[in-house]
Amino acid sequence: MSDATEANGTAGAPETAGSGGAGGRQVRVVLVDDHRMFRTGVQAEIGRTEETGVEVVGEAADVDQAVSVITATRPEVVLLDVHLPGGGGVEVLRRCAPLMADAERPVRFLALSVSDAAEDVIGVIRGGARGYVTKTITGTDLVDSIFRVQEGDAVFSPRLAGFVLDAFASTDAPPVDEDLDRLTQREREVLRLIARGYAYKEIAKQLFISVKTVESHVSAVLRKLQLSNRHELTRWATARRLV
What is the domain-level CATH number for residue 124? Predict the structure, then answer.
């Protein structure tokens, strides 16, 4: 299956309850992750429909592919990586907002990421995701999380739930860093890579953009944060545990 192809079945045609495994439950899922090997591994782990009740109906490797596949297949649940070429998981959520708001057949999102950074967790939850789990999760727990999200529950890896409680339940502290909130999702991605010591060419290759575009993003970040150079930027990011 290609990066942006519907796996099988008719777009928008949910299976009837009781036709799959997992005690008769069945859920249609789209995998969104820019690493093909990881998508292949997840599908092998959870996509045994007769055993798990999970049917993988599509895959995508970047934002544009994700929006296209999700719109075409209308799955019940999307497993969404946070860091994607084209704007990240938050951009997918923004563009799929009408599908999430559909009262009759909502598309629900479960973030599945290697990152356990508070800013990533809070960012996608603010964007509309129903939960966030890390890639250390077992296949069995991931299947359970998918069904819980399908049913409308909020699901988090235990340590990550605290980030959300701190950000949204506290009336004393702002939910996000005001300076960080000025940056776009792509600017945050560039900021993080700069702070980790990546060269412009390396960033361009990883984000599938030109070196000139990287330079433009860095200039925008420096201007918005009122910093002078990448060394100050690195210190700023380190102080906020963004690296």
Answer: 3.40.50.2300
Which tens digits make up the pLDDT trace of 178-194? 677 788 878 888 898 88
The answer to whether 57 and 9 have CB atoms below 8 angstroms apart is yes
The span from the CA of 135 to the CA of 114, in Å, is: 5
Q: Give yes or no: residues 47 and 153 share one domain.
A: yes
- C-alpha distances in Å from residue 17, one per residue of 20, 23, 25, 51, 79: 7, 10, 6, 14, 21
Q: What percent of the chain has pLDDT over 90?
A: 42
Query: pTM for the whole thing?
Result: 0.63
Q: How many CB atoms lie within 10 A of CB 161?
A: 15
Which residues, 6 or more positions from 69, have their beta carbon under 8 angstroms from its beta carbon? 4, 5, 6, 30, 32, 58, 59, 60
Give the number of other CB atoms < 10 A from CB of residue 33. 28
For residue 123, being part of any structural domain is answered with yes
The verdict on 44 and 73 lying in the same domain is yes
Tokens of 42: 């997840």
User: Phi first, then psi: what are they for 163, rounded to 5°?
Assistant: -60, -45
